[in-house]
Design goal:
single chain, about 240 residues, mainly alpha, Ferritin, two-stranded antiparallel ribbon, membrane, DUF305_CopM-like, transmembrane, Ferritin-like, DUF305 domain-containing protein
Length: about 240
C-alpha cells in the first residue's frame, strides 16, 4: 500500500516538472507586441552586376533643325518618338519629284558649255548644288518606308513642267544667246511645275519632312525664276 502511494507521488512530481517546462517554453516563444527589443532588420539587397546592359544616362544624339547643329541629351530623359505619319499625297510627291529634279540637273549641266550668260551659269550651279542633295533625301525617305522610286507603282501621274525629249534635244543643240533664252523658258516652266506639285502636297500631305522640303521648293524655285529672267535681261 505504501509503495503505491510512493508511485503516485512520483508520477505527480513528473507531471509538475513537465508543466513547468511547457510554461517556460511558452514564455520564450511568445513575444508581446510592446517588446522593447528591436526587431531584426533584413539585410539590404545586393545590387546585381549585369554586364551588357545599356547606360540609361549615356548621351543620345538629338538632330537639329535644318542648318542647326545636333545636340545631346541623357537617354533616360529622351522620350521615344512616335512613328511619323504620311499618306498617299506625300508618297506621290516624292515619287514624282525625284525624276523631276533629275531632269532639272540634266538641263543645268548644259549651261556651262553652251550658254553665254554668266548669271545663268551661276544659277545653274546653284540648281546643281541644291537639287542633287534633295534627290538623296527623297530617295532615303522612300527607302526608310520600304518604298521604291515608283512609290509602289500606285502614283503614276503626269509631272507638271517636265520637258519632252524633243525639247531637250533642241536645247542641247543650241548655243550662245539662243541657248540662254531656251534654257530660261524651259527651266522657268520646269520650276513652276515643281512649285505646283509642292503646293499640292502642302495641302494634302501629312509628313513633316516633306512639308519642310516642299516649302523650300516653293520659296527657292520662285526666287530662281525671277533671277533667271533678270539675268537674261541684263545682257
Amino acid at each position: 500500500m505504501l509503495g503505491g502511494v510512493r508511485i503516485r507521488a512520483f508520477v505527480l512530481i513528473e507531471l509538475a516538472v513537465v508543466a513547468v517546462v511547457a510554461a517556460v517554453a511558452g514564455v520564450v516563444l511568445w513575444l508581446p507586441d510592446d517588446d522593447p527589443r528591436p526587431a531584426a532588420r533584413p539585410s539590404p539587397p545586393v545590387p546585381l552586376d549585369l554586364p551588357g546592359l545599356p547606360d540609361a544616362t549615356a548621351p543620345v544624339l538629338m538632330p537639329g533643325r535644318p542648318g542647326e547643329p545636333a545636340g545631346r541629351a541623357p537617354a533616360n530623359e529622351v522620350s521615344p518618338l512616335a512613328a511619323p505619319s504620311y499618306n498617299n499625297a506625300d508618297v506621290r510627291f516624292v515619287a514624282m519629284m525625284i525624276p523631276h529634279h533629275e531632269q532639272a540637273l540634266v538641263m543645268a549641266r548644259l549651261v556651262a558649255d553652251r550658254g553665254d550668260n554668266a548669271g545663268l551659269r551661276s544659277i545653274a550651279e546653284r540648281i546643281l548644288a541644291a537639287q542633287e542633295p534633295e534627290i538623296k533625301t527623297l530617295e532615303t525617305w522612300l527607302s526608310d518606308r520600304g518604298l521604291g522610286r515608283d512609290g509602289g507603282g500606285r502614283h503614276q501621274h503626269s509631272m507638271s513642267g517636265m520637258q519632252s525629249a524633243e525639247a531637250l534635244s533642241r536645247l542641247t543643240a543650241a548655243r550662245g544667246a539662243e541657248f540662254d533664252r531656251m534654257f530660261v523658258d524651259m527651266m522657268a516652266e520646269h520650276h513652276q511645275g515643281a512649285i505646283d506639285m509642292a503646293g499640292e502636297v502642302l495641302v494634302l500631305g501629312e509628313d513633316n519632312i516633306i512639308n519642310e522640303l516642299a516649302s523650300g521648293v516653293v520659296v527657292e524655285q520662285k526666287a530662281e525664276i525671277v533671277r533667271m529672267r533678270e539675268a537674261l535681261t541684263t545682257t
